[in-house]
Amino acid sequence: MQIQPECPSCVALQLMRTVQHRKIDNWRSVMADTLASIAGLWGDADNPGHIIGTMYTKVNLLTDTHDAYRAERELANQLAQTYWNGQPLAIDNIEGRMLYATAGNIIDAGLNADPTHSFTQLDQAIGQGFGRNDIAGFFDQVPKGGTILYVTDNAGEAVFDREVVTALKARGYKIWLLVRGRPFLNDLTRIEAELLGFRTVADHILDTGTGQGGFDPRYAGFDAQRATQQVDGWIVKGIANLETLSHQAALQPRLFLYRAKCPPSARLAGVLWNDNVALME
């Protein structure tokens, strides 16, 4: 997704929230130095995800922080597991499980670091259904028994991702799961994927090789780059991955599952702000 006029204000808002989350006294100098470090990127960057990733890297450096959201990831996964246990869907209901995974995209530390608050909105988000639904078209293009690259996003929603993967495996697809190479906000890493049991349901677990928020094959590790050439289709979760991938051409069909949390992501799919989206490209 290419940079839009709303993107600078969104980056500034996320910077404010991440600085507040650190609870630091020198927040003014951290914000000033961070804003200065990204000011020159707006003219050349081809997507907002690159700028946001640079911003968080700078804040981590200035605050000497490696993994500020570990507790939030653990709590989000616990809450999501409890939620799923209370209302599981049949294993053949792939579309329903995808709706849960898409609505679960509201669990986002970039917008609200408190997972408990996000879960108060989950019932309503699921009840909306899809504002755009290209799921059937995606499976029409991916061969039965084919290999799907499942690009993950946030913890919490990853519990629902696991249930989508389980359903896809039951239908005969092979799944290569892609997680972050290093901690970034509350995004899923290998540690959480292992704890959630993905190793027993996915055929392979790969990582991006980086700590950037969105997956960009141009800057990813070798295994992740190679995977993009070997699969039959992609399922891509979340706004950050949408930002870094949707404007790049791909050889295979891609299904973007996300919550339209900003006007540019809503316009891209032709939906309303905060709709659930299953967009095929």
CATH superfamily of the largest domain, please? Uncharacterised protein PF01937, DUF89, domain 3
Number of helices: 13
* CATH architecture descriptor text of the largest domain: 3-Layer(aba) Sandwich
**What would the CATH topology of the largest domain be?**
Rossmann fold
- The main sheet orders its strands as 1-7-6-5-2-3-4
* Main sheet properties: 7 strands, mixed
CATH level 1 class label of the largest domain: Alpha Beta
**Total domain units:** 2
The gyration radius over C-alpha positions equals 18 Å
Poorly predicted spans: none
Helix content: 40-55%
* Proportion of residues in extended strands: 5-15%
Return the string of H and E elements. HHHHHHHEHEHEHEHEHEHE
| Terminal Cα span | 12 Å
Number of strands: 7
- Overall average pLDDT: 94
Q: Which structural class do you get from the secondary structure elements?
A: alpha/beta
Task: Outline the structure in words.
The chain is α/β, with parallel strands linked by helices and 281 residues long. The protein folds into two domains: 57 residues; 211 residues, Rossmann fold. The chain has 13 helices and seven strands. A seven-stranded mixed β-sheet has the order 1-7-6-5-2-3-4, sandwiched between helices. Strand 3, helix 10 and strand 4 form a beta-alpha-beta unit. The longest helix has 17 residues.
